[in-house]
Amino acid sequence: MNVLRFPNGRAMIAMSILALLIFFADTVTVLDIAVATLYVLVVLLSARFGSTRTVMLVGAGCIALAVISWGLTRPAGPILEGIVNEVISNLTIALVTVLTIRSLRTEQRHRYQASLLELTRDAFFTWDMSGKVLYWNRGAEALYGFDRAAAIGKVVHTLLNTQFVVPLEQIVDRLHQHDSWEGQFARRRADGAPRIVTCRLTLQRDAAGRASMVLETNNDITERVRLEDALEQARSDLVRMNRVLVLGELTASIAHKMKQPIAAMMTSATAALNWLDHDPPAMRKAAQAIARIVDDGNHAVEVIARVRSLVKKAPTRAGRWDVNEAVDEVIALTRSDVARNGIQLRRELKQSSLSISGDRVQVQQVLINMIVNAIEAMHGVVDNHRILTVTTGVDGHGYAFMQVRDTGVGINEADLPHLFESFYTTKAEGMAMGLAICRSIAEAHGGRIDAEQNQPRGAVFRLTLPVERHESSGAAPAHMA
Ligand code: ADP
User: What atom in ligand 1 is closest to the CA of residue 369?
Assistant: First the structure.
Protein backbone atom coordinates (compact mmCIF):
# COMPACT_ATOMS: atom_id res chain seq x y z
CA MET A 1 0.00 0.00 0.00
CA ASN A 2 1.28 3.46 -0.84
CA VAL A 3 1.09 5.73 2.19
CA LEU A 4 2.58 9.14 2.74
CA ARG A 5 5.83 8.44 4.52
CA PHE A 6 8.28 10.74 6.26
CA PRO A 7 11.40 8.68 6.26
CA ASN A 8 13.59 11.72 6.21
CA GLY A 9 12.29 14.72 8.19
CA ARG A 10 15.03 17.05 7.03
CA ALA A 11 14.41 16.34 3.39
CA MET A 12 10.75 17.10 3.99
CA ILE A 13 11.62 20.45 5.57
CA ALA A 14 14.06 21.31 2.76
CA MET A 15 11.42 20.45 0.20
CA SER A 16 8.80 22.59 1.95
CA ILE A 17 11.20 25.53 2.23
CA LEU A 18 12.05 25.24 -1.45
CA ALA A 19 8.34 25.15 -2.34
CA LEU A 20 7.68 28.24 -0.21
CA LEU A 21 10.64 30.11 -1.73
CA ILE A 22 9.38 29.37 -5.21
CA PHE A 23 5.87 30.42 -4.17
CA PHE A 24 7.27 33.63 -2.71
CA ALA A 25 9.36 34.41 -5.79
CA ASP A 26 6.44 33.55 -8.05
CA THR A 27 4.03 35.76 -6.08
CA VAL A 28 6.02 38.87 -5.18
CA THR A 29 8.44 39.21 -8.06
CA VAL A 30 7.37 40.28 -11.47
CA LEU A 31 9.94 38.35 -13.43
CA ASP A 32 9.50 37.64 -17.11
CA ILE A 33 10.41 34.02 -16.71
CA ALA A 34 7.94 31.34 -15.63
CA VAL A 35 9.21 30.95 -12.06
CA ALA A 36 6.50 28.30 -11.42
CA THR A 37 8.35 25.77 -13.58
CA LEU A 38 10.93 25.60 -10.78
CA TYR A 39 8.35 23.53 -8.85
CA VAL A 40 9.64 20.56 -10.88
CA LEU A 41 12.64 20.59 -8.51
CA VAL A 42 10.27 20.01 -5.60
CA VAL A 43 8.58 17.15 -7.48
CA LEU A 44 11.97 15.56 -8.28
CA LEU A 45 13.01 15.88 -4.62
CA SER A 46 9.81 14.15 -3.51
CA ALA A 47 10.88 11.01 -5.40
CA ARG A 48 13.39 10.48 -2.61
CA PHE A 49 10.56 9.28 -0.36
CA GLY A 50 10.03 6.32 -2.67
CA SER A 51 6.24 6.65 -2.68
CA THR A 52 4.30 7.30 -5.86
CA ARG A 53 1.45 8.72 -3.79
CA THR A 54 3.75 11.30 -2.17
CA VAL A 55 5.00 12.34 -5.61
CA MET A 56 1.43 12.65 -6.84
CA LEU A 57 0.39 14.76 -3.83
CA VAL A 58 3.48 16.96 -4.10
CA GLY A 59 2.87 17.44 -7.85
CA ALA A 60 -0.77 18.41 -7.18
CA GLY A 61 0.32 20.70 -4.34
CA CYS A 62 2.84 22.49 -6.58
CA ILE A 63 0.23 23.03 -9.29
CA ALA A 64 -2.14 24.39 -6.62
CA LEU A 65 0.55 26.76 -5.30
CA ALA A 66 1.31 27.97 -8.85
CA VAL A 67 -2.38 28.66 -9.47
CA ILE A 68 -2.79 30.48 -6.12
CA SER A 69 0.28 32.60 -6.79
CA TRP A 70 -1.00 33.47 -10.28
CA GLY A 71 -4.39 34.42 -8.79
CA LEU A 72 -2.71 36.66 -6.23
CA THR A 73 -0.40 38.53 -8.60
CA ARG A 74 -2.44 38.89 -11.77
CA PRO A 75 0.49 40.07 -13.94
CA ALA A 76 0.11 43.43 -15.55
CA GLY A 77 0.84 42.20 -19.08
CA PRO A 78 -1.64 40.86 -21.62
CA ILE A 79 -4.00 38.40 -19.94
CA LEU A 80 -3.75 35.72 -22.65
CA GLU A 81 0.03 35.62 -22.38
CA GLY A 82 -0.28 35.18 -18.61
CA ILE A 83 -2.72 32.31 -19.02
CA VAL A 84 -0.50 30.58 -21.60
CA ASN A 85 2.52 30.96 -19.30
CA GLU A 86 0.59 29.54 -16.38
CA VAL A 87 -0.75 26.59 -18.40
CA ILE A 88 2.74 25.77 -19.71
CA SER A 89 4.20 25.87 -16.18
CA ASN A 90 1.46 23.63 -14.82
CA LEU A 91 1.73 21.20 -17.72
CA THR A 92 5.49 21.00 -17.13
CA ILE A 93 4.94 20.24 -13.43
CA ALA A 94 2.29 17.62 -14.31
CA LEU A 95 4.53 16.00 -16.93
CA VAL A 96 7.52 15.82 -14.57
CA THR A 97 5.22 14.37 -11.89
CA VAL A 98 4.01 11.62 -14.27
CA LEU A 99 7.56 10.80 -15.42
CA THR A 100 8.81 10.70 -11.85
CA ILE A 101 5.99 8.34 -10.84
CA ARG A 102 6.79 6.08 -13.80
CA SER A 103 10.47 5.84 -13.03
CA LEU A 104 9.63 5.23 -9.38
CA ARG A 105 7.35 2.33 -10.39
CA THR A 106 10.06 0.80 -12.60
CA GLU A 107 12.55 1.11 -9.77
CA GLN A 108 10.09 -0.49 -7.36
CA ARG A 109 9.52 -3.36 -9.79
CA HIS A 110 13.25 -3.94 -10.12
CA ARG A 111 13.67 -3.82 -6.37
CA TYR A 112 10.85 -6.35 -5.96
CA GLN A 113 12.43 -8.68 -8.52
CA ALA A 114 15.77 -8.36 -6.75
CA SER A 115 14.11 -9.13 -3.41
CA LEU A 116 12.67 -12.32 -4.96
CA LEU A 117 16.20 -13.37 -5.87
CA GLU A 118 17.09 -12.82 -2.24
CA LEU A 119 14.19 -14.96 -1.08
CA THR A 120 15.12 -18.01 -3.15
CA ARG A 121 17.29 -20.52 -1.33
CA ASP A 122 19.09 -21.37 -4.56
CA ALA A 123 22.43 -19.72 -5.02
CA PHE A 124 22.22 -17.08 -7.74
CA PHE A 125 24.96 -14.75 -8.88
CA THR A 126 26.21 -12.95 -11.95
CA TRP A 127 29.67 -12.32 -13.30
CA ASP A 128 31.11 -10.23 -16.11
CA MET A 129 33.06 -11.62 -19.03
CA SER A 130 36.30 -11.48 -17.05
CA GLY A 131 34.70 -13.65 -14.37
CA LYS A 132 34.28 -10.89 -11.76
CA VAL A 133 31.23 -11.21 -9.53
CA LEU A 134 28.64 -8.45 -10.08
CA TYR A 135 25.73 -9.73 -8.00
CA TRP A 136 25.61 -12.30 -5.20
CA ASN A 137 22.34 -13.34 -3.51
CA ARG A 138 21.69 -14.66 -0.01
CA GLY A 139 21.47 -18.25 -1.30
CA ALA A 140 25.03 -17.88 -2.62
CA GLU A 141 26.14 -16.47 0.74
CA ALA A 142 24.64 -19.49 2.52
CA LEU A 143 26.03 -22.05 0.07
CA TYR A 144 29.60 -20.73 -0.13
CA GLY A 145 30.00 -18.85 3.17
CA PHE A 146 31.25 -15.66 1.45
CA ASP A 147 29.12 -12.59 2.16
CA ARG A 148 28.25 -10.21 -0.63
CA ALA A 149 31.02 -7.73 0.19
CA ALA A 150 33.63 -10.51 0.09
CA ALA A 151 32.37 -11.90 -3.22
CA ILE A 152 31.64 -8.86 -5.36
CA GLY A 153 34.54 -7.89 -7.63
CA LYS A 154 36.36 -11.24 -7.13
CA VAL A 155 36.97 -13.68 -9.97
CA VAL A 156 34.33 -16.32 -9.29
CA HIS A 157 36.36 -19.43 -10.18
CA THR A 158 39.31 -18.28 -8.08
CA LEU A 159 37.10 -17.34 -5.14
CA LEU A 160 35.33 -20.72 -5.17
CA ASN A 161 38.30 -22.79 -6.29
CA THR A 162 36.25 -24.30 -9.12
CA GLN A 163 37.33 -27.71 -10.42
CA PHE A 164 36.11 -28.09 -13.97
CA VAL A 165 34.82 -31.38 -15.29
CA VAL A 166 35.22 -30.00 -18.81
CA PRO A 167 37.80 -27.28 -19.55
CA LEU A 168 36.63 -23.70 -18.97
CA GLU A 169 37.40 -22.75 -22.59
CA GLN A 170 34.96 -25.41 -23.76
CA ILE A 171 32.27 -24.08 -21.42
CA VAL A 172 32.83 -20.52 -22.65
CA ASP A 173 32.71 -21.69 -26.30
CA ARG A 174 29.42 -23.40 -25.68
CA LEU A 175 28.06 -20.37 -23.87
CA HIS A 176 28.88 -18.19 -26.86
CA GLN A 177 27.26 -20.66 -29.25
CA HIS A 178 24.11 -21.57 -27.32
CA ASP A 179 23.84 -18.80 -24.71
CA SER A 180 23.60 -21.41 -21.95
CA TRP A 181 25.51 -24.28 -20.35
CA GLU A 182 24.53 -26.85 -17.74
CA GLY A 183 26.84 -29.08 -15.78
CA GLN A 184 28.54 -29.86 -12.54
CA PHE A 185 31.33 -28.12 -10.59
CA ALA A 186 33.34 -29.12 -7.55
CA ARG A 187 34.07 -26.05 -5.41
CA ARG A 188 35.22 -25.00 -1.96
CA ARG A 189 33.37 -22.98 0.63
CA ALA A 190 34.98 -20.10 2.50
CA ASP A 191 35.78 -22.56 5.34
CA GLY A 192 37.44 -24.95 2.88
CA ALA A 193 34.64 -27.54 2.91
CA PRO A 194 34.11 -29.13 -0.52
CA ARG A 195 30.82 -28.56 -2.31
CA ILE A 196 29.52 -30.26 -5.43
CA VAL A 197 26.96 -28.24 -7.33
CA THR A 198 24.89 -28.58 -10.45
CA CYS A 199 25.04 -25.31 -12.27
CA ARG A 200 23.25 -23.48 -15.05
CA LEU A 201 24.99 -20.64 -16.84
CA THR A 202 23.05 -18.20 -19.02
CA LEU A 203 24.76 -15.64 -21.19
CA GLN A 204 23.38 -12.09 -21.30
CA ARG A 205 24.05 -9.88 -24.31
CA ASP A 206 23.97 -6.12 -24.61
CA ALA A 207 21.90 -4.21 -27.19
CA ALA A 208 24.65 -4.70 -29.78
CA GLY A 209 24.57 -8.49 -29.24
CA ARG A 210 27.91 -8.61 -27.43
CA ALA A 211 28.27 -11.00 -24.48
CA SER A 212 28.08 -8.82 -21.40
CA MET A 213 27.34 -10.94 -18.36
CA VAL A 214 26.80 -14.53 -17.18
CA LEU A 215 23.94 -15.49 -14.83
CA GLU A 216 24.71 -18.55 -12.74
CA THR A 217 22.36 -20.65 -10.58
CA ASN A 218 23.66 -23.46 -8.37
CA ASN A 219 22.12 -26.37 -6.54
CA ASP A 220 24.07 -28.11 -3.82
CA ILE A 221 24.22 -31.87 -4.50
CA THR A 222 27.12 -32.65 -2.15
CA GLU A 223 24.97 -34.82 0.12
CA ARG A 224 23.40 -36.67 -2.80
CA VAL A 225 26.81 -37.45 -4.26
CA ARG A 226 28.02 -38.60 -0.83
CA LEU A 227 25.08 -41.00 -0.56
CA GLU A 228 25.69 -42.28 -4.08
CA ASP A 229 29.34 -42.89 -3.18
CA ALA A 230 28.28 -44.74 -0.02
CA LEU A 231 25.95 -46.86 -2.13
CA GLU A 232 28.73 -47.56 -4.59
CA GLN A 233 30.99 -48.50 -1.67
CA ALA A 234 28.31 -50.88 -0.33
CA ARG A 235 28.04 -52.35 -3.77
CA SER A 236 31.75 -52.94 -4.09
CA ASP A 237 31.76 -54.38 -0.55
CA LEU A 238 29.23 -56.92 -1.73
CA VAL A 239 31.32 -57.67 -4.77
CA ARG A 240 34.35 -58.12 -2.50
CA MET A 241 32.31 -60.44 -0.31
CA ASN A 242 31.52 -62.41 -3.41
CA ARG A 243 35.23 -62.76 -4.18
CA VAL A 244 35.96 -63.86 -0.65
CA LEU A 245 33.21 -66.41 -0.90
CA VAL A 246 34.66 -67.58 -4.19
CA LEU A 247 37.95 -68.05 -2.42
CA GLY A 248 36.15 -69.99 0.28
CA GLU A 249 34.78 -72.28 -2.37
CA LEU A 250 38.22 -72.48 -3.92
CA THR A 251 39.62 -73.71 -0.62
CA ALA A 252 37.42 -76.74 -1.00
CA SER A 253 38.59 -77.37 -4.52
CA ILE A 254 42.22 -76.72 -3.58
CA ALA A 255 41.94 -79.18 -0.70
CA HIS A 256 40.67 -81.60 -3.30
CA LYS A 257 43.69 -80.90 -5.48
CA MET A 258 46.03 -81.35 -2.51
CA LYS A 259 45.34 -85.04 -2.69
CA GLN A 260 47.75 -85.22 -5.59
CA PRO A 261 50.89 -83.79 -3.88
CA ILE A 262 50.11 -85.83 -0.78
CA ALA A 263 49.95 -88.95 -2.93
CA ALA A 264 53.24 -87.91 -4.55
CA MET A 265 54.81 -87.38 -1.11
CA MET A 266 53.70 -90.85 -0.05
CA THR A 267 55.17 -92.37 -3.17
CA SER A 268 58.47 -90.56 -2.57
CA ALA A 269 58.47 -91.65 1.09
CA THR A 270 57.89 -95.27 0.13
CA ALA A 271 60.72 -94.97 -2.43
CA ALA A 272 63.05 -93.47 0.20
CA LEU A 273 62.28 -96.34 2.57
CA ASN A 274 63.04 -98.83 -0.21
CA TRP A 275 66.38 -97.14 -1.07
CA LEU A 276 67.33 -97.22 2.62
CA ASP A 277 66.36 -100.92 2.78
CA HIS A 278 68.94 -101.75 0.11
CA ASP A 279 72.19 -103.41 1.14
CA PRO A 280 74.20 -101.22 1.20
CA PRO A 281 71.53 -98.43 1.50
CA ALA A 282 71.35 -96.21 -1.60
CA MET A 283 71.80 -93.01 0.39
CA ARG A 284 71.93 -90.60 -2.61
CA LYS A 285 68.69 -91.95 -4.12
CA ALA A 286 67.00 -91.92 -0.69
CA ALA A 287 68.11 -88.32 -0.10
CA GLN A 288 66.70 -87.29 -3.53
CA ALA A 289 63.35 -88.89 -2.68
CA ILE A 290 63.27 -87.12 0.71
CA ALA A 291 64.12 -83.78 -0.97
CA ARG A 292 61.12 -84.29 -3.29
CA ILE A 293 58.93 -84.88 -0.23
CA VAL A 294 60.18 -81.64 1.31
CA ASP A 295 59.49 -79.71 -1.93
CA ASP A 296 55.97 -81.10 -2.28
CA GLY A 297 55.29 -80.50 1.40
CA ASN A 298 56.49 -76.90 1.24
CA HIS A 299 54.42 -76.21 -1.82
CA ALA A 300 51.29 -77.65 -0.21
CA VAL A 301 51.82 -75.65 3.01
CA GLU A 302 52.31 -72.46 0.99
CA VAL A 303 49.06 -72.90 -0.94
CA ILE A 304 47.06 -73.67 2.19
CA ALA A 305 48.54 -70.73 4.07
CA ARG A 306 47.81 -68.29 1.24
CA VAL A 307 44.22 -69.37 0.81
CA ARG A 308 43.57 -69.46 4.54
CA SER A 309 44.90 -65.96 5.04
CA LEU A 310 42.50 -64.65 2.40
CA VAL A 311 39.49 -66.54 3.64
CA LYS A 312 40.04 -65.48 7.25
CA LYS A 313 39.16 -61.91 6.24
CA ALA A 314 35.59 -62.89 5.42
CA PRO A 315 33.34 -61.85 8.28
CA THR A 316 30.40 -63.96 9.29
CA ARG A 317 27.45 -62.00 10.54
CA ALA A 318 24.51 -63.55 12.19
CA GLY A 319 21.33 -62.02 13.53
CA ARG A 320 17.66 -61.58 12.84
CA TRP A 321 16.59 -59.45 9.90
CA ASP A 322 13.65 -58.74 7.66
CA VAL A 323 13.56 -60.47 4.27
CA ASN A 324 11.74 -57.67 2.43
CA GLU A 325 14.18 -55.04 3.68
CA ALA A 326 17.17 -57.11 2.57
CA VAL A 327 15.54 -57.75 -0.83
CA ASP A 328 14.76 -54.06 -1.25
CA GLU A 329 18.40 -53.21 -0.63
CA VAL A 330 19.47 -55.66 -3.32
CA ILE A 331 16.87 -54.21 -5.72
CA ALA A 332 18.29 -50.75 -5.03
CA LEU A 333 21.83 -51.99 -5.64
CA THR A 334 21.00 -53.65 -8.92
CA ARG A 335 18.43 -51.08 -10.12
CA SER A 336 20.86 -49.21 -12.35
CA ASP A 337 22.00 -52.43 -14.07
CA VAL A 338 18.37 -53.46 -14.55
CA ALA A 339 17.47 -50.07 -16.04
CA ARG A 340 20.59 -49.93 -18.22
CA ASN A 341 19.58 -53.24 -19.79
CA GLY A 342 16.06 -52.02 -20.56
CA ILE A 343 14.54 -54.52 -18.15
CA GLN A 344 11.16 -54.03 -16.54
CA LEU A 345 11.37 -54.80 -12.83
CA ARG A 346 8.36 -56.23 -10.98
CA ARG A 347 8.54 -56.24 -7.21
CA GLU A 348 6.10 -58.63 -5.59
CA LEU A 349 7.03 -58.71 -1.93
CA LYS A 350 4.99 -60.32 0.81
CA GLN A 351 2.79 -57.79 2.61
CA SER A 352 3.74 -58.62 6.19
CA SER A 353 7.31 -58.68 7.48
CA LEU A 354 9.21 -61.95 7.37
CA SER A 355 11.99 -62.49 9.89
CA ILE A 356 15.03 -64.63 9.17
CA SER A 357 18.22 -65.52 11.06
CA GLY A 358 21.65 -65.84 9.52
CA ASP A 359 24.18 -63.89 7.54
CA ARG A 360 22.21 -61.15 5.82
CA VAL A 361 25.06 -60.14 3.50
CA GLN A 362 25.59 -63.70 2.31
CA VAL A 363 21.90 -64.13 1.56
CA GLN A 364 21.92 -60.81 -0.30
CA GLN A 365 24.92 -62.11 -2.22
CA VAL A 366 22.82 -65.06 -3.38
CA LEU A 367 20.08 -62.71 -4.53
CA ILE A 368 22.53 -60.47 -6.36
CA ASN A 369 23.95 -63.47 -8.15
CA MET A 370 20.47 -64.63 -9.17
CA ILE A 371 19.57 -61.14 -10.43
CA VAL A 372 22.86 -60.70 -12.31
CA ASN A 373 22.38 -64.10 -13.97
CA ALA A 374 18.80 -63.14 -14.89
CA ILE A 375 20.00 -59.85 -16.43
CA GLU A 376 22.63 -61.71 -18.44
CA ALA A 377 20.08 -64.32 -19.55
CA MET A 378 17.89 -61.55 -21.01
CA HIS A 379 20.64 -59.87 -23.05
CA GLY A 380 19.48 -61.39 -26.32
CA VAL A 381 15.75 -60.81 -25.75
CA VAL A 382 13.74 -58.07 -27.48
CA ASP A 383 13.55 -55.02 -25.21
CA ASN A 384 9.87 -54.97 -24.34
CA HIS A 385 9.93 -58.62 -23.32
CA ARG A 386 12.63 -58.27 -20.67
CA ILE A 387 10.82 -58.75 -17.39
CA LEU A 388 12.44 -59.46 -14.05
CA THR A 389 10.11 -60.39 -11.19
CA VAL A 390 11.40 -60.50 -7.63
CA THR A 391 9.04 -62.22 -5.23
CA THR A 392 9.12 -63.00 -1.53
CA GLY A 393 6.68 -65.12 0.46
CA VAL A 394 6.13 -68.24 2.53
CA ASP A 395 5.84 -71.64 0.84
CA GLY A 396 3.55 -74.55 1.74
CA HIS A 397 6.05 -75.87 4.33
CA GLY A 398 6.27 -72.58 6.20
CA TYR A 399 9.67 -71.64 4.70
CA ALA A 400 10.44 -68.13 3.54
CA PHE A 401 11.39 -67.83 -0.09
CA MET A 402 13.01 -65.22 -2.30
CA GLN A 403 12.48 -65.79 -5.98
CA VAL A 404 13.90 -64.28 -9.15
CA ARG A 405 11.98 -64.93 -12.36
CA ASP A 406 13.21 -63.81 -15.77
CA THR A 407 12.13 -63.99 -19.39
CA GLY A 408 15.59 -64.81 -20.71
CA VAL A 409 17.04 -67.68 -22.69
CA GLY A 410 16.02 -70.24 -20.08
CA ILE A 411 17.84 -73.43 -19.06
CA ASN A 412 18.37 -76.57 -21.12
CA GLU A 413 16.92 -79.72 -19.60
CA ALA A 414 20.42 -81.25 -19.82
CA ASP A 415 22.00 -78.36 -17.90
CA LEU A 416 19.43 -78.30 -15.10
CA PRO A 417 21.02 -80.99 -12.86
CA HIS A 418 24.51 -79.42 -13.11
CA LEU A 419 23.79 -75.72 -12.63
CA PHE A 420 24.87 -75.70 -8.99
CA GLU A 421 28.15 -77.49 -9.56
CA SER A 422 31.41 -75.58 -9.31
CA PHE A 423 32.87 -74.62 -12.68
CA TYR A 424 29.66 -75.42 -14.58
CA THR A 425 28.91 -72.62 -17.01
CA THR A 426 27.25 -72.15 -20.37
CA LYS A 427 28.89 -68.73 -20.86
CA ALA A 428 32.10 -68.03 -22.74
CA GLU A 429 33.48 -65.94 -19.87
CA GLY A 430 31.43 -67.40 -17.04
CA MET A 431 33.24 -67.94 -13.76
CA ALA A 432 30.64 -70.51 -12.82
CA MET A 433 31.29 -70.22 -9.13
CA GLY A 434 28.17 -68.17 -8.37
CA LEU A 435 25.51 -70.84 -8.13
CA ALA A 436 27.81 -73.30 -6.35
CA ILE A 437 28.45 -70.67 -3.67
CA CYS A 438 24.75 -69.81 -3.58
CA ARG A 439 23.96 -73.41 -2.84
CA SER A 440 26.57 -73.65 -0.08
CA ILE A 441 25.17 -70.47 1.51
CA ALA A 442 21.61 -71.74 1.26
CA GLU A 443 22.52 -75.09 2.81
CA ALA A 444 24.58 -73.47 5.57
CA HIS A 445 21.44 -71.55 6.48
CA GLY A 446 19.37 -74.73 6.59
CA GLY A 447 17.72 -73.89 3.28
CA ARG A 448 18.01 -74.70 -0.41
CA ILE A 449 18.15 -73.18 -3.84
CA ASP A 450 16.25 -74.51 -6.85
CA ALA A 451 15.99 -73.65 -10.50
CA GLU A 452 13.30 -74.41 -13.04
CA GLN A 453 12.04 -73.25 -16.40
CA ASN A 454 9.76 -70.25 -16.46
CA GLN A 455 6.62 -70.42 -18.62
CA PRO A 456 6.53 -69.55 -21.45
CA ARG A 457 10.16 -68.45 -21.42
CA GLY A 458 13.10 -67.89 -19.09
CA ALA A 459 14.12 -69.28 -15.74
CA VAL A 460 13.05 -69.16 -12.10
CA PHE A 461 15.55 -69.35 -9.24
CA ARG A 462 14.20 -69.73 -5.75
CA LEU A 463 16.10 -69.47 -2.47
CA THR A 464 14.19 -71.06 0.41
CA LEU A 465 15.18 -70.47 4.03
CA PRO A 466 13.65 -71.47 7.34
CA VAL A 467 11.81 -68.69 9.14
CA GLU A 468 13.04 -67.77 12.66
CA ARG A 469 15.89 -70.21 12.68
CA HIS A 470 18.01 -70.58 15.85
CA GLU A 471 21.69 -69.71 15.89
CA SER A 472 22.98 -72.91 17.57
CA SER A 473 22.75 -74.87 14.31
CA GLY A 474 25.54 -72.68 12.85
CA ALA A 475 24.52 -70.01 10.43
CA ALA A 476 27.86 -69.74 8.69
CA PRO A 477 28.79 -71.97 5.81
CA ALA A 478 31.26 -74.70 6.67
CA HIS A 479 34.07 -73.22 4.59
CA MET A 480 33.92 -69.94 6.54
CA ALA A 481 34.54 -71.56 9.92
P1 ADP B 1 28.24 -68.00 -14.50
O2 ADP B 1 27.11 -67.05 -14.46
O3 ADP B 1 29.56 -67.37 -14.29
O4 ADP B 1 28.23 -68.93 -15.69
P5 ADP B 1 26.85 -69.28 -12.33
O6 ADP B 1 27.32 -70.34 -11.39
O7 ADP B 1 26.26 -68.08 -11.73
O8 ADP B 1 28.09 -68.92 -13.22
O9 ADP B 1 25.79 -69.92 -13.32
C10 ADP B 1 26.03 -71.19 -13.89
C11 ADP B 1 25.21 -71.38 -15.14
O12 ADP B 1 23.83 -71.41 -14.83
C13 ADP B 1 25.33 -70.28 -16.15
O14 ADP B 1 26.42 -70.43 -16.98
C15 ADP B 1 24.03 -70.37 -16.92
O16 ADP B 1 24.11 -71.32 -17.94
C17 ADP B 1 23.07 -70.92 -15.91
N18 ADP B 1 22.15 -69.88 -15.42
C19 ADP B 1 22.20 -69.25 -14.25
N20 ADP B 1 21.20 -68.37 -14.14
C21 ADP B 1 20.46 -68.45 -15.27
C22 ADP B 1 19.27 -67.81 -15.78
N23 ADP B 1 18.63 -66.88 -15.06
N24 ADP B 1 18.82 -68.15 -16.98
C25 ADP B 1 19.45 -69.10 -17.71
N26 ADP B 1 20.57 -69.75 -17.31
C27 ADP B 1 21.08 -69.43 -16.10
Answer: 7
